[in-house]
Design a protein that fits this description.
about 120 residues, mainly alpha, two-stranded antiparallel sheet, 5 helices
Amino acid sequence: MEILIISIVTFFAAILTFFSGFGLGTILTPLMMVFFPVEVAVAFTGVIHFSNNIFKLFLVGNYVNKEVFIKFGIPAIIAAFIGSFILFNINSNIVVYSYNLLGNFKEVSLIKFIVSLLLIFFAL
């Protein structure tokens, strides 16, 4: 059932991203964080994002504005490596908040809290 939910949401998010140009990471990261640890969720989202972008490159690659690609693409690649380094070096054992929901004990780790704040910030 989990694979079906992830597949359906990924498919529709990819379609939305094709037309809008943004939103795949914002939609998929929280979904993946429900089913996987943060590091794995971000990695899976990155793989899906990369695959989707390669597909879009084959479809509309001839219409890419080279100047915009250089101005935004190169810094984005560098920032992705910096973000990955930071993500894997933050201690995920630090608990920021814990709560009890319907008899289930839940914890919010520092890494989940930071990723959540970044998603909220970039969604605005």
